[in-house]
């Protein structure tokens, strides 16, 4: 059954009603979502096998973004985040992109780098050539460490040798370029780097030190683009202002940092929900924002097309996988992957990148129109009201007052509650 992600009115439903709608619209059984209940999710025993010194588990809200069409296919997007407005904003941006057909994505091959650092080399330039001459030998030695990867069509694709000037020495750094298929790839490339380090040191005639992957996954890129209808955005002036706002992010690192954080609000939420390594993806993204032009800049770009609509584009390193790690251990991550319905790491990365672009568009649009606080604080008001002690019956009344007063603060929520209860 094809997924229909165009689900309106989700915010007005109860949790059980939302689940019923999702299971009706997606190719998942209702029972598969039972692990989303805290009492059925990650157990203490499971957690104890995942990391050290376990004393408990931390719950993070898991929402579902709707309206996404990526490469002509609809997706319901699981997003794990504690920040209000993220899921709603992504869904709204996806709804606007849907008018012109949704998001179009593409991906390079899933290539990761492993680095082997060599110190105390007397002739680094000649050592570089010696290592390149031994390319076939080193590739064979590395490939022998992971026969399963080779059987799945992966393995080492190339060897590079970089000379890195440093105080007092020139470091010789060999890079293994490895196709890791549907894995994130850290374990595979680290094992290969460890295995060849001794031979690399012999050939370079130096002492090997670091043997580890690089999270600057500049050969493993996902790209997403979309057309956002000018009328749905608010008109030609809004389109122009979004372009101006995005231009500042490209030129000014102070704006770029927050602009890119908006992208990562969406990206990290899906990466976390699917049990992937949020720190690796974030490190890759921010290093990519520096590497292209030598200074920190925006990861995305917005421009106006010949019809006056807004066109958004985003390129990100995307080191995510569907095999190994928490993706295969964490029951909620497994449920999230099932709900998403992706079957390859490539597909997962492309969907994540589309979510990043949607989140970015939503944030820049808000900044260029009403300001970020209005939508964000209206959702934040619920948290403030609950913290102040509002009951479910009192909650909508308190939230409405906080928003009307433009005072979304704990002390004001307590005052409103006191008034409602006739206290003081």
What key phrases describe this protein's structure?
Alpha-Beta Plaits, 3-hydroxy-3-methylglutaryl-coenzyme A Reductase, Chain A, domain 2, alpha+beta, 4-stranded antiparallel sheet, 424 residues, Helicase, Ruva Protein, domain 3, 3 domains, 17 helices, 20% strand
Number of structural units classed as domains: 3
Distance between the termini: 59 Å
Overall morphology: globular
Strand count, sense and barrel status of the largest sheet are:
4 strands, antiparallel
The largest sheet has its strands arranged as 3-8-10-9
Q: Strand tally, please?
A: 10
Structural class determined from secondary elements:
alpha+beta
Looking at CATH, the homologous superfamily of the largest domain is 3-hydroxy-3-methylglutaryl-coenzyme A Reductase, Chain A, domain 2
Looking at the structure, the CATH topology of the largest domain is 3-hydroxy-3-methylglutaryl-coenzyme A Reductase, Chain A, domain 2
Q: Can you tell me the CATH architecture of the largest domain? A: Alpha-Beta Complex
Task: Provide the low-confidence segments as ranges.
Answer: none
Roughly how many Å is the radius of gyration? 25 Å
> What's the tally of helices?
17
Percent helix, as a range, is: 40-55%
CATH class of the largest domain: Alpha Beta
The proportion of strand residues reads 15-25%
Secondary-structure element series: HHEEHEEHHHEEHEEHHHHEEHHHHHH
Overall pLDDT? 94
